[in-house]
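Q: Sequence in, structure out?
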Amino acid sequence: MQEMVTITFLNNGDKTVQAPDNSNLLRVSIREKGGIPFKCGGGICGTCKCHIEEGLEHTDAIKAKERRHLKPEDFEAGYRMACQTFVNGDIKVSW
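A: Exactly. Output:
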């Protein structure tokens, strides 16, 4: 049985959803109506910039596409691009 993670969408009334381990954050948001803004879904536009408020350690490595839109200090502050972020533990996200 696949492990499940809990994702809390803080800007959407703290909506909490369960998703399979290693799920793409933007895909979960779209499927579960989490509300993270997006346009391209492929790391080109930067619209899906979001703030991992809890559980940053439960996200995967920063991608090259994210580095084009976000600065090192953004990553240190917990910002990621949802379309490029895979979740392997519980997180709370705002945008």
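The helical segments are 25-32, 64-69, 72-76.
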